[in-house]
Write a structure and sequence with these properties.
The chain is an alpha/beta fold. The protein has a single domain, classed as Rossmann fold. The chain is built from 3 helices and 8 strands. Strand 6 and strand 7 form a beta hairpin. Helix 2 crosses helix 3. Keywords: Signal. This is ABC-type transport auxiliary lipoprotein component domain-containing protein. Pfam families: ABC_trans_aux.
Length: 200
């Protein structure tokens, strides 16, 4: 137990950094990059209105990490997201879903299906010994038609970090976010009827 606590303490000090006696450098800023990854081949679908929510901690721009299942998340010193993770994930999800059909910010009519998505986790999680980590993204999705629930799902994705630092965590979260968005698109394709093709 003492060895594990020591490892966690060392990892915390190394990741947080020590600014004593130094002038703070401008923070390094990250985003999710260009949406260049191939998307699944899915049929066209009807228009949906996307309503997106996130837990309060993801409304800040800090790059969050934690050790294992610790209840004490931390943010890297000197690193931040260009926008809060809630905004970045919503943008990537909209980009991905738009490949199969229009995505609106709000309903045009009550007949427009509404996709409600909640982001509950977006962070780098380290193994207790600090030798490995992964980016984790967790989404809850509910599809409504009027007041009727057409379906709901929980999507949890993980991607290994190539390096055990902020840059590695960002790379892993980019991959995990793309995988989560793809899974939402696939689930939506099976829940909504495809849009009829002209002449079909």
């Amino acid at each position: 137990m003492m060895k594990m606590r020591s490892a966690v303490l060392i990892l915390t000090l190394a990741l947080a950094g020590c600014g004593i006696g130094r002038v703070a450098a401008p923070p390094s800023v990250f985003d999710l990059g260009l949406d260049s990854r191939p998307v699944p081949a899915l049929p066209a679908r009807d228009t949906v209105a996307l309503v997106f929510h996130a837990v309060p901690s993801l409304s800040d721009t800090g790059v969050i990490w934690r050790v294992g299942d610790s209840a004490a998340p931390k943010a890297y010193a000197g690193y931040r997201w260009a926008s809060p993770p809630a905004d970045l994930v919503r943008q990537r999800l909209t980009e991905r879903l738009s490949r199969q059909g229009p995505v609106l910010d709000e309903r045009v009519t009550l007949q427009t299906p509404q996709l409600q998505v909640s982001l509950s986790q977006f962070e780098q999680v380290f193994a207790p010994d600090g030798q490995a980590s992964e980016g984790r993204v967790v989404l809850q999705a509910v599809l409504l038609s009027g007041r009727n629930v057409l379906g709901q799902t929980r999507i949890a994705t993980q991607a290994p970090a190539p390096t055990q630092d902020a840059q590695g965590g960002v790379a892993a979260l980019r991959q995990a976010t793309d995988e989560a968005a793809d899974q939402v698109a696939q689930w939506l394709a099976t829940t909504l009827k495809p849009t009829p093709r002209p002449g079909g």
